[in-house]
Design brief:
single chain; alpha/beta; 9-stranded mixed sheet; 5-stranded mixed sheet; globular; disordered N terminus
Length: 376
């Protein structure tokens, strides 16, 4: 398991692993279906010889990039990797073998890889080669940065992060539907960072039709990030003239809709460059989002940011699919006739409610940023 280590990590181990985690975070949203991994190579004297992160599209892997930079500096040194080095042959050779060939003397790992193609085999390969390994260093942080990939491997679906900008009394819009602007500029910028760190952004058809969003990344330096836009649209009502549909060739658009939807309309979306994904329906008449989540996992998505509407939020929470909630809480009060952040769910007893644990809270401009994780 990740926990037990043969010895306590040194201050240098912690510092280099922190740097590797920073590298891993930079790649979030760009590497799916692979995880975003960070790697730092320290030479025999403890100085940084190479750094690497998983490249866009998932390869080259972080270890390959770091070893390329380090060259002979890797021999006798230490590799710091946020996720266990892979042990399987794919489009690239195993990273565990590359580390052995480079002559490293030691490997410090953040968390183990649950993928059955590796799952301890990378560490075993290092051990066989006489390379000492220290596992679980800053393990909680490593698991958090890799959470999307871990969720897809372990549950077959991506991690869902529900984002909401709301008032002090939990309203996301006035009773008229107007929502601009509840949160401040700093919060909106952070929201775009969350988009950039996500493989995909999901909204419901209500939000798509009411706001006609672009769902792009408008953040200096990250404008090139193009997360998949996903619309939950059972009856395929999204206008073909919407900004989402018209830009489907410039930024991917996937539409989740019921099986047997009008083929002519589905073909029109495909001709615009969108992907139409047939999805099972529940007895309630809603899309089966649990089945849809599995379909998204099969397509390789690891991190999905949910931005759209109280009904989608309620459906995902009811299906126990929401793994994280990020709340931008503004100092406004709208009252009971404002639009709730989550639609009615019919909960009759607090014990039956979905429970979340506070991960962090911080001030961001004039707002409060809260991050919550679903309880296991």
């Amino acid at each position: 398991m990740d926990g037990a280590v043969a010895q306590a990590p040194t201050k240098a181990d912690l510092a280099h692993m922190q740097a590797a985690l920073v590298l891993a975070r930079r790649g979030l949203g760009t590497t799916w279906p692979n995880p975003s991994v960070g790697c730092v190579i320290a030479d025999a004297a403890g100085y940084v010889a190479g750094r690497g992160t998983t490249r866009p599209g998932g390869r080259p892997h972080a270890e390959t990039e770091a070893l390329r930079q380090a060259g002979e500096g890797a021999r006798g040194g230490t590799a710091y990797v946020t996720l266990e080095p892979c042990a399987h042959h794919g489009k690239t050779p195993p990273c565990a073998d590359a580390l052995v060939a480079a002559g490293i003397a030691r490997c410090v790992v953040g968390t183990q890889d649950p993928d059955m193609r590796t799952a301890g085999r990378g560490l075993a390969a290092l051990k066989t080669a006489g390379i000492g390994a220290l596992v679980g260093v800053l393990g909680a942080e490593a698991r958090e940065v890799t959470a999307g990939f871990l969720t897809r491997v372990e549950k077959g679906r991506p991690l869902f992060l529900l984002k909401s900008a709301m008032t002090l009394d939990g309203r996301i819009a006035a009773h008229t539907g107007r929502s601009r602007w509840i949160s401040g500029e700093a919060s909106r910028q952070h929201g775009h960072l969350l988009r950039a760190q996500s493989d995909a952004i999901l909204v419901g058809i209500g939000t798509a039709m009411a706001d006609d969003p672009q769902l792009d990344v408008r953040l200096a330096g990250l404008e090139g990030r193009k997360p998949v836009r996903i619309v939950a649209d059972a009856r395929l009502r999204l206008p073909l003239t919407s900004r989402l549909a018209r830009s489907a060739r410039q930024q991917p658009l996937w539409v989740l809709t019921r099986a047997g939807v009008d083929e002519g309309r589905a073909r029109a979306f495909r001709e615009l460059g969108a992907e139409v994904i047939p999805t099972d329906m529940l007895a309630s008449g809603e899309l089966d989002l649990a089945a849809a989540a599995q379909a998204l996992g099969t397509r390789g998505l690891t991190r999905v940011l949910v931005e759209g509407g109280g009904r989608v939020a309620a459906s995902l929470i009811r299906a126990r699919l929401v793994d994280r909630i990020v709340v931008f809480r503004a100092g406004l009060v709208m009252g009971g006739d404002g639009m709730a952040s989550v639609a009615a769910m019919g909960v009759e007893d607090p014990a039956a409610a979905a429970h979340f644990t506070l991960q962090s809270v911080a001030r961001i401009g004039d707002d409060i940023l809260e991050t919550w994780a679903a309880r296991a």
